[in-house]
Amino acid sequence: MRDRFDRPLRDLRISVTDRCNFRCRYCMPRERFGEQHTFLPRRALLSFEEIERFVSACLPLGLSKVRITGGEPLLRPGVPALVQRLSTLGVETALTTNASLLRDQAPLLADSGLDRVTVSLDAIDPQTHASMADCTIPVETVLEGIEAALENDLGPVKVNCVVQRGVNESEVPALVGHFQGTGVIVRFIEYMDVGRTNGWSPGQVVHSMDLLKELQREFDFVPIEGESPSDVATRWAHSDGSGEIGFISSVSEPFCGDCVRARLSADGHLFTCLFASGGHDLRAIIHDGGAIDELTDAIAAVWSRRTDRYSEMRSSETSSLPRIEMSYIGG
Fold it and tell me: What are the chain's domains?
């Protein structure tokens, strides 16, 4: 199944909750997601059986990889049971997490068949971490979660760092140095205008190539050829073989033309772009429990009409459109 720009459906991001115990300003600023914010009621969330059914319905369309996201997915009880359900379908199964709960859950996740973990970490410095995550969970807890993932072979473990000008540029070389030689791949993400609550402006973006130039003052990198045209990151290796880093450059070097990702919200809406204004409500057919072919046909109908190219077309006009918050559909 291909969309109107001949892009196949290969990768499904599955949000299992819109709740999170961090309040990162680029995703869930506290003034918008405070104590009075109304999150999805638990009764509205898709069951693990329904999520498994949705993934099964995507398989005939070419799906090969699923990623469990949130919010913070490990806040939802029983995620290892969902991993076990999905891994038995034969798809690569990954998890994106802030790692605050990963230390204790890593063994269960590994035993359930999880293939790999990506951890969101924007700073090594305790004060910068506390400021960006806007929480009391120390950076040491995140680092312990990463170590637990390594110990349980949930790798290659990747660390995603969102870089904001004037906020955490100084943390970039510190992150590279900290994880060099550990097997952890650090990827730096250009600050994006996801959602409508993070106050994004172009001046806050640090372009990836500018970061690379700065890093090359301290480290010696050589380029690595990508494994697939749909890879979102450009890869660079330490010349001495002690690891690699990556850059995800949605602003300066959009990759819409090779995007093969769809997103399923925790309550059953299908989104065909991270910057979507709205999703496709498939709750009724998911809950129905009828022939799975009907669900496959519904997903195919959505994907075949897909024309999303937000990052390639980014302008004052497109940026003014409403956009779904990242905490609702996952990053």
Answer: 11-329 (3.20.20.70)
Look at residue 14 and give its three-state secondary structure: strand
User: Which amino acid belongs to residue 85?
Assistant: R
Q: Is the pTM of this model over 0.85?
A: yes
Summarised one tens digit per residue, pLDDT across range 176-208 is 999 999 999 999 999 988 877 777 888 999 999
Contact at 8 Å (CB) between 70 and 17? yes
The conformational region for residue 99 under phi > 0 = left, psi -120 to 50 = alpha, else beta, is: left
d(CA 35, CA 13): 27
Distance of CA 145 to the CA centre of its chain: 17
Q: Do you find a cis peptide bond into 331, omega within 30 degrees of 0?
A: no
Distant-in-sequence, close-in-space partners of 60: CB < 8 Å, separation ≥ 6: 296
Structure tokens at 261: 């990702």
Distance CA 148, CA 105 (A): 9
Which of 148, 149, 186, 145 lies closest to 168 in space, CA to CA? 186
